[in-house]
Write a structure and sequence with these properties.
Blueprint lengths: L1 H8 L2 H17 L4 H13 L3 H12 L8 H11 L3 H14 L13 H12 L5 H13 L4 H13 L3 H14 L4 H10 L4
Helix pairs in contact: 1-2, 2-3, 3-4, 4-5, 5-6, 5-7, 6-8, 8-9, 9-10, 10-11
Amino acid sequence: LLQLRTAVAESMADRDESIKVYEQAIALAPRYPSSFIGMAETYLTAGDAKQAAIIMDTIYREITRPTPFVYSVLSVSVLAGEYAKARDQAEHYIALGNTPTHPPNSYFDKTDLDGVLNRVRSTKHSEDTERFLEVIFNHQKASPLLFITLAEVKAELGKFDEARRIALELIERDKSYQNDVDQFLNLLPKD
């Protein structure tokens, strides 16, 4: 209710009260993700994505096995523009799948990953964005949207040859993207 009042009335008092409630919940159950998620949502509602990313990362570091929670964590970091943090979180997730307890590789679900990638496409990009996407790309190339997003980011950074290579690799994997890739390649400067 406090989060709703924070959103509707833009009340900092309600935000602060909501944060206090979540701090108390975290003190009582410090390994319970829902309290951290609620606090992060409060910060997001108040427009403080950077603080929300810090909160999500705090509980995420406690995770010891692959979990779908990674997509919420990555999304908040992306919304905050914290791509170095998102890269570290992706690397952490990948490493969780390479332990004696969880020997198979961690797998990014295509649909959930695409949700994160759509958020990436709506934010400003930097070399940290590129490095974040490369961590996932080098681990798993299951999502065509990953190819497209990474190629777009590389093009924005002036890395046109790398952008072309990635776009052409997508066509090799899935011919149904031929028109999309052709349109993308036509936007790039000619050699």
